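Researcher: Go.
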Amino acid sequence: MLFCGDVVGQPGRTAVCRLVRRAKSELAVDFVVVNGENAAGGFGITPAICEEFFSAGVNVITTGNHVWDQREIISFIDSEPRLLRPHNFPDGTPGSGASLFTLASGLRVVVVNVMLRLFMDPLDDPFACVERFVQGHKLCKTADAILVDAHGEASSEKQALGHMLDGRVTVVIGSHTHVPTADTRILPKGTGFQTDAGMCGDYDSIIGGDKGSWLRRFKSRMPVGRVSPPRGLGTACGILVDVNGSNGLAAKVSPVVQGPYLREYWPK
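Model: Structure:
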């Protein structure tokens, strides 16, 4: 499985599509999850961008706090099961936050998209929400693999969710902060983990946004409006997960980086 971090703007879209195609051909990737919540100019995602990702080989798109920034996605999400929004949104919210996907090969992959709460919106308890869902899905019984996108600001909260799910899901990967962390590992009971996958976008930026706009905001404390992404070359950051077929846990977890500004890493 391949998970790609938050896609930001046109540079991110180009970079992630390039990465997915290469990973499918060179790394024999079977299943791809991409967090696309910033894909439309840094704010939200559109149906057309979803189709762009699906055409490139993406199986599932996760999101987060920017999911509704492009209002046309609201009427689209109920008709597209491959597009997820956070599972702990209130009852009655359009779309779904977790689902089972069956590949043509027969492999069954569960994807859970959850949004955490520290320094974020006060949503329903993400820990209780994920706990209830995971109780209904057992590795090697109802699913061959379970991937959790933990969309949150605080490293501690993401790590806590990872340890809570250790041994019960294949991998927990953090998103939202747009900066890749160096803690790729397998937890003691066999679940893969990384605090944040990083973004797919132009890293000659500040978290994917125009440097000048962010600097004016920090230096003047005055509003500058929406910070648009730059239009330079994009770098794609992701996590490659080799799944142990005998128990559904992570056999190996490796970072994947392709593009300028960061040190490239391509698993052998």
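Model: The CA atoms of residues 33 and 201 lie 16 Å apart.
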